[in-house]
Design a protein that fits this description.
With about 130 residues, the protein is an alpha+beta fold. About 25% of the residues lie in helices and about 40% in strands. It has three helices and eight strands. It has an eight-stranded mixed β-sheet with strand order 2-3-4-1-5-8-7-6. The longest helix has 12 residues. The protein is globular and about 40 Å long. The relative contact order is 0.20. The model has no long low-confidence stretch (mean pLDDT about 95). This is Methylmalonyl-CoA epimerase. Belongs to the methylmalonyl-CoA epimerase family. GO terms for molecular function: metal ion binding; methylmalonyl-CoA epimerase activity. One of its GO terms (biological process) is L-methylmalonyl-CoA metabolic process.
Length: about 130
């Protein structure tokens, strides 16, 4: 793993959360996109080299909708940048981590992603991210 790629925050309303975080971070939302397969709409902000991803459910069956219903708005996941997502997935499986998907899938911000089950990482949902070249 190379570095923290971003921190994901689940929100009820992307527009109002974006306004809050723009003021808080003194930085604009630079990208908004919807990932239909995941039922989520995302907004990204950057502070220096650090990124925040705001996540709003786009339907009631979305993992984000379920997260907010159970835990409320707040930190949803921490994402780490990797050079080779498949090799990192294999390494983590060999170390005994439970992955939420068997193959990387297309995520936001031009990334291939895979999630590590929170029960494997002391209650933290971990995302692996590899830039699609």
């Amino acid at each position: 793993m190379n570095k923290i790629e971003h921190i994901g925050i689940a929100v009820n309303n992307l527009q109002s959360a974006g306004d809050i975080y723009e003021k808080l971070l003194n930085s604009p939302v630079y990208k908004i996109e919807e990932i239909l397969s995941e039922g989520v709409k995302t907004a990204f902000l950057k502070v220096g080299t650090n990124k925040i991803e705001l996540l709003e459910a786009s339907n009631t069956e979305s993992p984000i909708a379920k997260f907010i219903a159970k835990k409320g708005e707040g930190i949803h996941h921490i994402a780490f940048e990797v050079d080779d997502i498949r090799a990192e997935m294999m390494r983590l499986k060999q170390e005994g981590f439970v992955l939420l998907n068997e193959e990387p899938k297309q995520g936001a911000d031009n990334k291939l992603v895979c999630f590590v089950h929170p029960k494997s990482a002391n209650g933290v949902l971990v995302e692996l991210c590899q830039e699609v070249k």
